[in-house]
């Protein structure tokens, strides 16, 4: 389920006309990395993996809107970052990827 969310998100990013080629490429690379990490996490904790994937989807969708609502983006990014709390030790790569995605999406929403 979590992998499906990330895969659907990848398709949306590929088709989104509001992203520059550079941002699209970078975001797609991060999402591919995230998909691998989410798959690993889902084997242990499918609920948390699904939560992270959902917050990633919401945050990415909001940042790619033609008219981003900064307050909605901020809330979704806070949810995304909260969903990975306590993972630094067990899943440092996932935390790193989510942090990079959060920074990128925040910058896109300016």
Nutshell version of this structure?
This protein is an all-alpha fold.
Would you mind describing this structure in some detail?
This protein has 110 residues and is an all-alpha fold. Helix content is 80%, strand content 0%. The chain has five helices and no strands. It has helices spanning 2-15, 21-44, 46-64, 70-83, 92-108.
Mean pLDDT, to the nearest integer, reads: 88
Distance between the termini: 31 Å
Strand content: under 5%
> Helix coverage percent of residues?
over 70%
Low-confidence stretches: none
Biggest sheet features? none
Sheet/helix structural class: mainly alpha
Radius of gyration: 13 Å
Number of helices: 5
H and E order: HHHHH
Number of DSSP-assigned strands = 0
Key terms for this structure?
110 residues; mainly alpha; 0% strand
Indicate the topology.
Blueprint: H1 2-15, H2 21-44, H3 46-64, H4 70-83, H5 92-108
Helix pairs in contact: 1-2, 1-3, 2-3, 2-5, 3-4, 3-5, 4-5
